[in-house]
Specification:
There is one protein chain. This protein has 1502 residues and is α/β, with parallel strands linked by helices. Among the domains are: 687 residues, ABC transporter type 1, transmembrane domain (ABC transporter transmembrane region fold, Up-down Bundle); 204 residues, Rossmann fold (3-Layer(aba) Sandwich). It has 47 helices and 24 strands. The strands form six sheets. It has a six-stranded mixed β-sheet with strand order 6-7-8-4-9-10, sandwiched between helices. A six-stranded mixed β-sheet has the order 17-20-21-14-22-23, sandwiched between helices. It has a four-stranded mixed β-sheet with strand order 1-5-2-3, with helices on one face. Helix 5 crosses helix 34. It is elongated. The chain starts with 26 loop residues before the first helix and ends in an 11-residue tail after the last strand. Pfam families: ABC_membrane, ABC_tran. Keywords: ATP-binding, Membrane, Nucleotide-binding, Transmembrane, Transmembrane helix, Transport. It is found in: Membrane. It is a multi-pass membrane protein.
Length: 1502
């Protein structure tokens, strides 16, 4: 049969044909449209040629304009020198808040693909096959960036030479004035000072421009390199390092390297500057005073180095505390639903705040060292000045203005190298450590599809055509597409093998089912096939493309459609067929925007079953040759499971090679091969018939009851009733190994010669007609007959034009299972071909109707389906209320902030008085020299010393107050945020990605702890210093006011333009940077799936497009900074020039005052520049405070405790639940999910809740816990209205075992009893024994204290569920809620748990949400929901006796499925309906069993 799936619409040649051919969609077609060119990660992440709508409104435009030159590329020489090409962007930013669309594209040289390509080539060139097979990172960095680094070093030397000309020119000017030189000479020197300042301005800005571009390119190269490597690491490396550590390499270690280059030149340039300053000082002050100054400098450098080391050590300690807090916060946010359900909010908040207090203690220590470091920076020139001037005066030299003020200017130049040199040496050490970690990661083991002994060909060689693979023409006449020979596998090179001596060969088109107990190695076998395990021996061969679904499905944070397409081209008919076969049609009606609805992070807004179906749809759409399906049927409703098995696994995929891991043993007869696994070995392989004949005891997976997925009501209910009932598979007299579905009859028995049914019919029931066995080759001949009949002239076709071969099936392309379904509907295996054509025409009409409904649903849902709200960013200035909230958290009545401002003014005021003292001292010296007297050096020196030391003391006092206030604010604001977040309703968490919430507890909290206080300090210091410098200049030369007024206006204008643009650019950069890390984290969690589909290149392109998107915001920030710097430095140069001209030319003053004015003006230049940056930095950092307090406006859920309405002591005693007229909706604008629901549950009753997906089962349980509040009606437990009491009082009295188990990192003990409420270890072991986990835990080294990794990563999904069951047992509540608590465990364990529920919880009220009927069929009551309303409620027996009962319909379908579960359900059915006698009411249609070796054969129901 052809491998093509096609569905033809009416309209002949105009009909769109969906082609799912072999080989699969090529690697090239899965690439992003336009590769890395389109850089919006949201719009262009996966661009599809979607006929219905453009994939990305802006992507095409972006791609077209990409090659158009950016403003920087198109700029002329002067525009580049003055950075004038930024003007348009800066002006736009001042007019309105900038948006991402306003930013330029990245230039061609900055394209992520181009930059990373150059770096990867350089890295490959450094590879050494023995020592460094992946290359040496530092060598590659030097080879790519070494040239630019040397170029910037040359610019730096030129800049330094120009910079030192300023003090020399100042000295010349003051000498000239002291000697009574001409005004013309003074003016000439002032002009020279201006020229030097402008030259210094342009060189320093060009230097930083080149360095920032180098840093940008290094950032792109490292992020891309790490991402690329992460796509290749083995699963063992990933598990060993952990997702967090790997992500940390990108966010932390790589960041140290790309940040280092900006100031790395200081390492050689710092000593060079210090030597130059000393040389100039010797000229001015002679050797001894200069050496005294140098001595202080030499003492300060080791001091700052020691401080730096202490600071680094303190920060390392702080990071440990921060990591512990962030890890716990991460687990709380990820598991917030479980924490709310268990009412653990209070204890977890206390635990986090305990860690927070430890962290803040360390932060206080770090900040104290940091503030001391800053004090050294600010007081360095003061101390050097004290030493130098003291020595100078002590040696009897005359201190003139020409000596004092050039020396003071030189001392200020020392400030930068003194503080930066030690910190850069520390940064260099840290970067080296980061580089070593990155190099180690680069050398980690890689997974290879071409490793010796592992053969994997995504597109196998075909002989003749794509269809040859289905026949036997390909691969040398039918070579097995999948084979393992003598395979032994471990997760890494050092651990014990997980699989041993595995030999398995799978023929093309076979369906292989893998069964075994929890932990037997089923998932590991699939991992071995994918090449994800370390192969110790044997060989693996995989021929053809692979599609894979994980046991824990990986869902991307994008739309449902993009999840399914996964980068493939959009083919409408194939896509619709996929949605139909994966039972997603009904879900599209429920999702707000159909298939365009955005799926939250990790599929947060999908149920477990929906996640599995989306993952299965992604695999199905891929049209691969080989399918590896890891238990996709476990979490879905019964009838959905049957639909997936019939319509997808054995329908659309019938001619594909399929390996299905499953616990649903009722499907085993449909398998071509059954593989039984135990303890990492394959125990048995064969057809189901052969294994039963060999006496394989399938009861080892079933125990007393098998866990089957019973059937629920589906869309064909009317048809089912029309056919007259259901097949009854009844229980045998005693359990026997053969009690599973019976082996298929021999070929000779085909037809109506009475082959034995699955089990003997009960005497109380009319015996069902014998099943009709149809050989798969018989079906093949019938297909041919149908096709021939359809091709006859005058025979209507169900699609296509004349001559189009039409296969009689609901799915275009002619599914074998579809034909089987039609045969069963018609009940004739050997009917005429004409009858078959009629049947298939009916099938085609039915299919077309369903298709039309699906298309109609998708059309109606064309509205905004985003569940994840776009992260809000503040626009415009930060509100005053935010500053107020922060400063008021320092202390009551703003006492501390006022004190800090006072100390700041006092400290800087004293330093200004110092300079006046120096001015008076030099003038006094000059006067004394003129009068031939001796100056009073002692008095001036004492005053100078005293003022300097007191200013340092005040600075330390201010720092202490600042630390105290900021730490208090950090504790208070973080506590408020945490208290708020845990009290927010679940609807809030559904619309917020975990990453965004975590940002508040990581990035924003860190900014609050470290950056905000520093920014407040810097902004305050610079503002006060600038203000006082202006005051000095104005006091000395009142005429300067005339120059200052216009300059102040220009300065203010430039500042406003810059702040408005820079603030928004930094916000945009912050938002655009997040997707890089989010995508990295998402990739790491879905690594196995991405590699199985061979989508690494596509995801690498997505990472590069994320980088381009981020850099569109990052690069303008750097350029706008240069734009500001050029303009402020120019204005600063004009201020110095005007001060010099005023005091030396227009109104010549004495040299002392002239020196003071010019020195203050020189100081003002740098300070003004720094002040604008610090003001902006403060605004940007206050965004973190803004984000931390923004959640305060959200409405909380109900109070934890309502004091006037506490539940009575010992409540609930009986566990009786009464629900009346209950109405529930998720949001006010949505339709109700539960509509007027009313029922009563007696105390200690066991109630099963069932109904199809979306009927409101989970909503009912969420309402019981008040995760969703009712908007009408009431719920009472033992007469207490649950809406009147507090949430803690309610939730702490209920127990739940959820469908998705939530496990926290820690130990087995901390997971069972996180707050030490259990009486002792005995209770815990008893709970573990009852849950079937005792042996597993005892096998661990430390028993109850054995470590559990984050998210329970070192346990299987089934084991996690059992641990949650043990937790519920230990809690011993009167009411237990089970939400499909056994979906991921094997049937034997399931049986044990069911028995535990009946015994351990016999005195409890138990509500069980059932996806599988055997778990509820013996309940006291059954509650059936339909579309949020009560369909029926009563005892199972009463419902089963009603022929029109919904529940009876479900049970009949389950019985038709066969197997022991069918027998169990049938025995209950028999007991309930015995009174009906042999009236025939239960007569059933014979099941059709497709026998023989044909692919996809097996038992099925209509």
């Amino acid at each position: 049969m052809s491998a093509t799936w096609s569905t033809s619409k009416k309209g002949g040649p105009n009909g769109i044909k969906a082609q799912f051919g072999l080989p699969s969609v090529s690697e090239e077609s899965t690439r992003l449209v336009g590769g890395a060119a389109s850089d919006d990660p949201n719009a262009a992440a996966f661009s599809f040629a979607d006929a219905s709508k453009p994939a990305n409104g802006g992507a095409a435009a972006a791609g077209a304009s990409r090659r158009a030159a950016t403003p920087e590329e198109a700029a002329g020489f002067l525009s580049r020198v003055f950075f004038s090409y930024c003007n348009t962007l800066v002006k736009l930013g001042a007019q309105r808040p900038l948006e991402h669309e306003d930013l330029w594209d990245v230039s061609e040289d900055d394209e992520a693909a181009a930059v990373s390509g150059r770096f990867q080539a350089a890295l490959a060139a450094t590879a050494d096959p023995v020592k460094h097979p992946q290359g040496v990172v530092w060598r590659a960095m030097w080879n790519v960036f070494g040239g630019s680094f040397v170029y910037t070093a040359a610019i730096k030397v030129i800049h330094d030479i120009i910079m030192f000309a300023s003090p020399w020119l100042l000295e010349r000017l003051l000498h000239h004035m002291a000697a009574g030189g001409s005004r013309g000479g003074s003016f000439g020197i002032a002009v020279a000072i201006l020229g030097v300042a402008l030259a210094e301005n342009f060189t320093v800005n060009w230097y930083f421009h080149v360095l920032f571009r180098m840093s940008l390119h290094l950032k792109i190269s490292l992020i891309d390199m790490l991402y690329d490597k992460s796509l290749r690491i083995t699963s063992a490396v990933k598990a060993d390092m952990g997702t967090g550590t790997i992500a940390n390499l990108q966010s932390n270690d790589a960041a140290k390297l790309w940040s280092l280059v900006l100031y790395l030149h200081v390492v050689w340039n710092g000593p060079f500057q210090i030597l130059c300053v000393m040389f100039l000082l010797v000229r001015i002050m002679h050797w001894a005073p200069s050496m005294a100054g140098l001595g202080v400098t030499i003492v300060i450098i080791p001091l700052t180095t020691l401080l730096g080391k202490a600071l680094a050590k303190s920060r390392r300690e702080q990071i440990k505390f921060t990591d512990a807090r962030v890890k716990l916060c991460s687990e709380v946010i990820t598991g917030i639903k479980a924490i709310k359900l268990y009412a653990w909010e209070g204890p977890y908040v206390d635990r986090i705040m305990g860690l927070r207090d430890n962290e803040l203690r360390q932060i206080r220590k770090t900040q104290a060292l940091s503030m001391f470091n800053t004090a050294m920076f600010m007081s360095g020139p003061v101390l050097v000045g004290l030493a130098a001037f003291g020595t100078y005066a002590g040696l009897g030299y005359s201190l003139t203005a020409a000596v004092a003020f050039p020396a003071l200017a030189l001392f200020n130049l020392l400030r930068f190298p003194i503080i930066m040199l030690p910190s850069q040496i520390m940064s260099l050490i840290q970067a080296r450590v980061g580089l070593q970690r990155i190099q180690k990661f680069m050398e980690a083991d890689e997974m290879s599809h071409s490793a010796p002994g592992y053969t994997s060909m995504p597109t196998p060689p075909a002989h003749g055509s794509t269809t040859s693979l289905n026949g036997g023409g390909g691969l040398g006449g039918g070579a097995a597409p999948l084979s393992i020979r003598d395979g032994t596998f471990a997760w890494d090179g050092s651990s014990e093998p997980v699989l041993r001596d595995v030999t398995l060969e799978v023929a093309r088109g076979q369906l292989v089912m893998i069964v075994g107990q929890v932990g037997s190695g089923k998932s590991s076998l699939l991992a071995a096939v994918l090449g994800e395990m370390n192969r110790r021996g044997g060989s693996v061969r995989v021929m053809g493309s692979v599609a894979y679904t994980a046991q824990d499905p990986w869902i991307q944070n994008t739309t449902l459609r993009k999840n399914v397409l996964m980068g493939g081209e959009f083919d409408q008919d194939a896509y619709l067929a996929t949605l139909q076969s994966c039972a997603l049609v009904a879900d599209l009606e429920l999702l707000p925007a159909g298939d365009q609805s955005e799926i939250g992070e990790k599929g947060i807004n999908l149920s477990g079953g929906q996640k599995h179906r989306v993952a299965l749809a992604r695999a199905t759409y891929a049209a691969a040759d080989i399918y590896l399906l890891d238990d996709p049927l476990s979490a879905v409703d019964a009838h959905v499971g049957r639909h997936l098995f019939d319509e997808c696994i054995c329908g659309l995929l019938e001619d594909r090679t399929r390996l299905l891991v499953t616990h649903q043993l009722q499907y085993l007869p449909a398998a071509d091969l059954v593989v039984v696994m135990d303890a990492g070995r394959i125990q048995h392989v064969g057809t189901y018939d052969e294994l039963v004949a060999r006496g394989v005891d399938f009861h080892q997976f079933v125990a007393e009851e098998e866990s089957e997925q019973p059937e629920e009501q589906d869309d064909e209910e009317q048809e089912k009733k029309k056919e007259g009932g259901a097949a009854a598979a009844t229980a045998p007299a005693k359990p026997e190994p053969a009690a599973l579905p019976a082996p298929a009859a021999p070929a000779a028995a085909a037809g109506t010669d009475g082959a034995a049914s699955a089990s003997a019919a009960s005497a109380t029931l009319t015996p069902p007609p014998p099943p009709i066995y149809v050989r798969s080759d018989t079906i093949a001949s019938l297909v041919t007959a149908v096709a021939a009949k359809a091709a006859e002239p005058g025979t209507p076709t169900s699609g296509g034009g004349p001559g189009t071969p039409t296969k009689p099936a609901r799915f275009g392309g002619g599914s074998m299972r579809r034909l089987g379904s039609s045969l069963r509907r018609g009940g004739a295996a050997n009917g005429s071909s004409g009858r078959l054509v009629d049947l298939e025409r009916e099938g085609a009409a039915e299919y077309a109707a369903e298709r039309a409904k699906l298309v109609d649903t998708m059309a109606k849902k064309e509205k905004d389906g985003k569940i994840v709200k776009v992260e809000e960013r503040a626009k415009g200035r930060v509100e005053r209320s935010v500053y107020s909230a922060y400063l008021s958290a320092w202390s009551p009545y703003y006492i501390l902030p006022i004190a800090v401002v006072f100390f700041s003014l006092s400290e800087r005021g004293l330093q200004v008085l110092q300079n006046f003292t120096l001015s008076n001292w030099s003038n006094a010296t000059a006067r004394a020299a003129a009068e031939h007297k001796t100056a009073h050096n002692g008095a001036y020196l004492s005053l100078y010393f005293t003022l300097g030391l007191v200013s340092i003391g005040l600075q330390l006092c201010r720092s202490a107050l600042l630390i105290y206030g900021s730490i208090r604010a950090s504790r208070l604001l973080a506590r408020k945020l945490l208290d708020k977040v845990v009290r927010l309703p679940m609807s809030f968490f559904d619309s917020q990605p975990t990453g965004r919430l975590l940002n508040r507890f990581t990035k924003d909290t860190e900014a609050l702890d470290v950056n905000v206080s520093g920014a407040v300090n810097s902004a305050l210091t610079t503002a006060v210093t600038a203000a006082l410098s202006v005051v000095v200049v104005v006091i000395v030369t009142p005429l300067a006011v005339v120059i200052f007024l216009p300059l102040t206006f220009i300065y203010y204008r430039v500042q406003q333009l810059y702040i408005a643009s820079s603030r928004e650019l930094k916000r945009l950069d912050s938002l655009a940077f997040s997707p890089i890390f989010q995508h990295f984290g998402e990739t790491l969690s879905g690594l196995m799936t991405i590699r199985a589909f061979r989508k690494q290149d596509q995801f690498l392109d997505k990472n590069r497009s994320n980088l381009n998107y981020s850099n569109r915001a990052y690069w303008p920030i750097q350029v706008v900074n240069r734009w500001l710097s050029v303009r402020l430095e120019m204005m600063g140069a004009l201020v110095v020039f005007s001060a010099a001209v005023t005091v030396a030319v227009i109104f010549p003053r004495n040299a002392g005052l002239a020196g003071l004015a010019i020195t203050s003006a020189l100081n003002l230049t740098g300070i003004m520049n720094w002040m604008v940056r610090q003001t902006t930095e403060l605004e940007v950092n206050m965004n973190s405070v803004e984000r931390m307090i923004e959640y305060h406006r959200y409405e909380e859920e109900a109070p934890a405790v309502v004091e006037g309405h506490r539940a009575p002591r010992g409540w609930p005693k009986e566990g009786a639940i009464s629900i009346k007229d209950l109405v529930v909706r998720y949001r006010p604008e949505l339709d109700p999910v539960l509509r007027g629901l009313s029922f009563e549950v007696a105390g200690r009753d066991k109630v099963g809740v069932c109904g199809r997906t979306g009927c409101g089962k989970s909503t009912l349980m969420m309402t019981l816990y008040r995760l969703v509040e009712p908007c009408g009606g009431s719920i009472t437990i033992d007469g207490v209205d649950i809406c009147a009491i507090g949430l803690y009082d309610l939730r702490s009295k209920l127990s739940l075992v959820p469908q998705d188990p939530v496990i926290f990192s820690g130990t087995v003990r901390s997971n069972l009893d996180p707050f030490g409420e259990a009486k002792g270890d005995g209770d815990m072991w008893e709970a573990l024994r009852r849950a079937g986990m005792e042996d597993t835990v005892r096998a661990y080294d430390k028993g109850l204290d054995s470590v559990i990794k984050e998210g329970g990563a070192n346990m299987s999904v089934g084991q996690r569920q059992l641990l949650c069951m043990a937790r519920a047992l230990l809690r011993a509540s009167r009411i237990l809620v089970l939400d499909e608590a056994t979906s991921n465990v094997d049937n034997g364990t399931d049986s044990l748990i069911q028995r535990t529920i009946r015994t351990a919880f016999k005195d409890c009220t138990v509500l069980t949400i059932a996806h599988r009927l055997h778990t509820i069929v013996d309940s006291d009551k059954i509650l059936v929901l339909d579309a949020g309303q009560l369909a029926e409620y009563g005892s199972p027996a009463a419902l089963l006796r009603n022929p029109d009962s919904h529940f009876r319909g479900l049970v009949e379908e389950t019985m038709r499925g066969g197997g022991v579960t069918g027998d169990v359900v049938a025995s209950v059915f028999n007991a309930a309906t015995a009174a009906e006698g042999a009236s025939g009411a239960l007569a059933a249609l014979p099941p059709v069993v497709v026998a023989g070796a044909g692919a996809g054969g097996g038992s099925s129901s209509s």
